[in-house]
């Protein structure tokens, strides 16, 4: 069996190498995992490019419409430059009341977001068109993936990672099982997104093994994988 005599050691080597392949997991270092339902309610936070209306009830001469600069700051009368990016309108209102209380009587103020900057979310991993997606209105995780070209066959649909920057600037992350959305058993897994969310679709275990074989076997062990094996009489 001349063409077959070297096959057993090769098969054993391949099985051993694949079985020893490291498990590929989604990197979520320095993140805090939270429950999906914690994403359902979220107060809007001001972003660079937003246009704000600042209204004073008793001092209309101080009313202003300002655009948040790229550095996240605004300039107002009787006040120094104020960093507003990342604050909610309510938080900014309270901050302005404290600032103006030293300058005017009864600083009753309202902050309104007149227009929003071009808000985006980001989809990467096993989708056909990874990159940014414009957030022009309500958008869920599955809808964002559809706008990114849809899922590849190699996608791990039951372990999609959703990452979001929290109020303290730390990333929060949760695993989303989109198979339960697709089959209708748990629509709550299709979380509504907010600006600058990151949706990462990891590779399936089978796809990871294929990548590992390509990287660590085909490129490093000079074995002709396409070689045929003949069965016949021995020498």
Write the layout of secondary structure elements.
Layout: H1 7-19, E1 31-33, E2 51-56, E3 64-67, E4 73-76, E5 79-83, H2 89-100, E6 109-115, E7 120-125, E8 131-134, H3 141-147, E9 160-165, E10 171-176, H4 178-182, E11 198-201, H5 205-218
Parallel strand pairs: 1-10, 7-11
Antiparallel strand pairs: 2-3, 2-6, 4-5, 7-8, 9-10, 9-11
Features:
3-stranded antiparallel beta sheet, alpha+beta, disordered N terminus, disordered C terminus, wza like fold, elongated, 6-stranded mixed beta sheet, Outer membrane lipoprotein wza fold like, 235 residues, 5 helices, 2 domains, 22% helix, single chain
Rg calc: 28 Å
Using DSSP, what is the number of strands? 11
Oligomer: single chain
What's the CATH first level of the largest domain? Alpha Beta
Strand content: 15-25%
Helical content band: 10-25%
Strand order of the largest sheet: 1-10-9-11-7-8
């Amino acid at each position: 069996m001349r063409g077959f005599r070297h096959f057993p050691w090769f098969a054993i080597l391949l099985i051993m190498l694949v079985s020893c392949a490291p498990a590929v997991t989604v990197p979520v270092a320095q993140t805090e995992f939270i429950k999906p339902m914690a994403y359902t309610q979220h107060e809007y936070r001001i972003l660079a490019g937003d246009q704000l209306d600042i209204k004073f009830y008793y001092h209309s001469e101080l009313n202003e419409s300002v655009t948040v600069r790229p550095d996240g700051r605004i300039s107002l009368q009787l006040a120094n430059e104020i960093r507003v990016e990342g604050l909610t309108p309510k938080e900014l209102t309270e901050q302005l009341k404290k600032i103006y209380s030293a300058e005017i009587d009864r600083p009753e103020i309202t902050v309104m977001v007149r227009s929003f900057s071009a808000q985006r979310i980001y989809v990467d991993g096993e989708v056909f068109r990874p990159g940014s997606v414009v957030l022009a209105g309500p958008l869920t995780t599955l809808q964002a993936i559809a706008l990114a070209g849809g899922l590849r066959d190699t996608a791990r649909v039951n372990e999609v990672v959703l990452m979001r920057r929290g109020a303290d600037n730390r990333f929060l992350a949760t695993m989303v099982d989109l198979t339960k959305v697709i089959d209708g058993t748990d629509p709550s897994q299709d979380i509504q997104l907010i600006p600058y969310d990151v949706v990462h679709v990891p590779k399936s275990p089978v796809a990871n093994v294929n990548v590992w074989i390509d990287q660590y076997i085909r490129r490093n062990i000079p074995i002709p994988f396409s070689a045929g094996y003949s069965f016949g009489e021995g020498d």
